[in-house]
Amino acid sequence: MAIMDDARLAGGTATPASAELVAAVRRSVCVPTATVRECLHPDADILSPTVARSRRILTRTSRLGAMLSVFFAFQALSTGPYTMWIGAVNIVSAALFLMVPALYRFGELVAPAAFVLIAYTSVTVVTINIGTGSGILLYFAVAGAITLLIVGLEHLGFAAAVAAVGIVTASILEFTVPAHTGAQTEMESRVSFVITAVSGCLIVMATVWSVLRENAIAQRAIQAEYLRSETLLANILPESIAQRLKDPAHTVIADKFDDASILFADIAGYTQRASDTTPADLVQFLDTLYTGLDALVDRHGLEKVKTSGDSYMVVSGIPHGRADHLEALASLALDFADEVRELTDPKGRPVPVRIGIAAGPVVAGVVGSRKFFYDVWGDAVNVASRMESTDVAGRIQVPHNVYERLQHAYQFEERGEIDVKGKGLMRTWYLVGRTSGASRADGAQSSPCSMA
């Protein structure tokens, strides 16, 4: 059975602020798309992010409109018996404003249109009865501006139509309704003008604040998604390859390396372990093993290419060449052996690992358009795979040319000639340790894995 690596297990990138996000991405549990779809009904009341944003803004603005209507209602009721019915109009308007957000279920523009209709109607009725001197016509401009903020540029035509209707209505009222109808005294009219101007500015500022708040939330969400996608990409590809892949000018990513080294590691007896171990225990075991190996690869500054079931592939000198690539990979192989020496499977059995190493010219690149991956090809890859598959459990096998290049710094035991598929007889050696003058890679200290 094939177990996907961290990159493919990660379904939510990194700066310290995004550390929790990155950790969540690395350990997230993927939910099959089909399962998600089964949970969603076609008639479910699900709003798109843009509509949901508009609804939140309109909800806040409608509440402000209701508060202002209640304020003007009390003002009218306290002025005198001639304006009591104007107070009633404002009370009704306040109730209608509070009901507006519920109209989104009927369409994206139904609720904003209802908001404008309530505002324009109440302003027109009040203007006809108290006159234009109170400055209440300013609310036509306020309503037009608020509409644009609510619906956004996606519905600029709708906002323009609302503004046009407001301009026409305000112009008609200005030329047909006197400044003072006698419902208010001159002082009351001036006070109303000041209140109208102040409240109009406040409601516009509050709506702008709401829009900016929504934009800030959206920006944080975009940043979180960006970090998540960057983390996923970094788990799939080497960083330099990921940067090249994101370049719109890139065509084919393929690089030739005249000399690089390859390592394959494999659990001996994996098939038997997989058959008598529960899926959950098997996945946990492989996750523990690969997490420890991944940390070792990172500390040695090398590159894990892929895992397939229990097979683990690492390259050195790719995608960036280095003169000591073979020495670095040999050091990693020895640390691999130390890492798993005390490791046991879920049933308490030892976990012997076969490791094979080879070196030579290879080609590396990204293939595929969906579920693309970075891979390495060449004779050295084939030889490294054969070194692992023909190895003895618990040993690190290398061909003779690798022995010749490493014998000055590492200790070997000769195995002799073995028959290698596709290559014939090959003289191989076991890598057993470092010479007294050799040392581990910087920072590469082993810490045995444990299933406890």
Automatic annotation (TrEMBL):
InterPro entries given in the database record: A/G_cyclase, A/G_cyclase_CS, Cyclic_nucleotide_synthase, MASE7, Nucleotide_cyclase
Protein name in the entry: Adenylate cyclase
Xref: PANTHER family: GUANYLATE CYCLASE, GUANYLYL CYCLASE
GO molecular function (one): metal ion binding
Entry EC number(s): 4.6.1.1
Database matches in SUPFAM superfamilies: Nucleotide cyclase (SSF55073)
Gene Ontology CC: plasma membrane
Subcellular location: Membrane
Superkingdom of origin organism: Bacteria
The UniProt record lists the keyword tRNA-binding: no
Subunit structure: Homodimer. Can also exist as monomer.
Keywords associated with the record: ATP-binding, cAMP biosynthesis, Lyase, Magnesium, Membrane, Metal-binding, Nucleotide-binding, Transmembrane, Transmembrane helix
Top enzyme class: lyase
Magnesium recorded as keyword: yes
Species the sequence originates in: Mycolicibacterium mucogenicum (Mycobacterium mucogenicum)
Similarity comment: Belongs to the adenylyl cyclase class-4/guanylyl cyclase family.
GO biological process: one example: intracellular signal transduction
Principal subcellular localization: membrane
Catalysis performed (reactions): ATP = 3',5'-cyclic AMP + diphosphate
